[in-house]
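Notebook p. 47: complex prediction with pyridoxal-5'-phosphate.
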Amino acid sequence: MSRVYNFSAGPAVLPEEVLKEAADEMLDYRGTGMSVMEMSHRSKAYDTIIKEAEADLRELMNIPDNYKVLFLQGGASQQFAMIPMNLMKNGVADYIVTGQWAKKAYQEACLFGKANKIASSEDQTFSYIPDCSDLPISEDADYVYICENNTIYGTKFKALPNTKGKTLVADVSSCFLSEPVDVTKYGVIYGGVQKNIGPAGVVIVIIREDLITDDVLPGTPTMLKYKTHADNDSLYNTPPAYGIYICGKVFKWIKKMGGLEKMKEHNEKKAKILYDFLDESKLFKGTVRKEDRSLMNVPFVTGSEELDARFVKEAKEAGFENLKGHRTVGGMRASIYNAMPIEGVEKLVAFMKKFEEANV
Ligand SMILES: *Cc1c(COP(=O)(O)O)cnc(C)c1O
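Predicted complex, structure tokens below:
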């Protein structure tokens, strides 16, 4: 067996320890004689799995009691619709468009009501976060929406926007559990888990209780109402049971690592190694405004498409996988999520130095 350093933006690297533990429990989960995959979601064993997962997530993120934690399906993309369907009571919402995922969410919201694009960084291919300290927030906006870490472009909000009292809704798919967060600043925090937490198929929604009501847009399907899932503790129908089990293991791994403060330190250390090199390199350069750089997704270019392609190819041969940039951006992107070990980044930078020496 040999494992590569996987820099994929998602689905992405998971802690090896978690994968090994899951492998050990594959045929017989703790004396039940069956795999978690084969288990009723109403069984006692599974009840413990999902309850522990929620309790550990609450502890890690310090989630207050007036917030519900929902384990849902449909990916982050389904939330693009669920959010307006459930929250657009006045039919108005403000969107800050800092990348493709925010843009898709904005476009989806336009299907349901008046969505306003109140700020955007599309003028410079989303390479920065706009100033959000005094935006023209709509008086009757039901919420203000952001994508907190822009997976494709590698930017991150370092300060939350001033929503002037309106509810903040944030897609945190690619920065979930990467650093401490003050949940009380948000009405809804959600993310697909396949970037930083677990296998594809689970989306976690953390939502303030007063936002969970029956007063949803007419025609909203039962399955797309937050209330349906909140009233049933995420067990209204069969949940993505195995995925939630793996997420639970990752929560325990993060707790063992020291929690989100430690995760942040670890992530800052890793990102610094790569950004410091990009800042001094004669060949490679980062594509994002420095103060807006993401700790998780690091896009970079050589300036030559041909060299970029050669770099990606040679890196792959050397055991560094999935470094090709997003198809809309080109160049390279290294996603260095929680589970990427520091050696992975150190070795990547050493490889980049060698490539630079051979090519300038
Ligand atoms: C990957 C990603 C999505 C889309 O997730 P799906 O689960 O594939 O729908 C949405 N937002 C962000 C920030 C992402 O990184």
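Notes: The domain at 258-359 is CATH 3.90.1150.10 (Aspartate Aminotransferase, domain 1). The radius of gyration is 21 Å.
Next step: compare against the earlier run before touching the bench.
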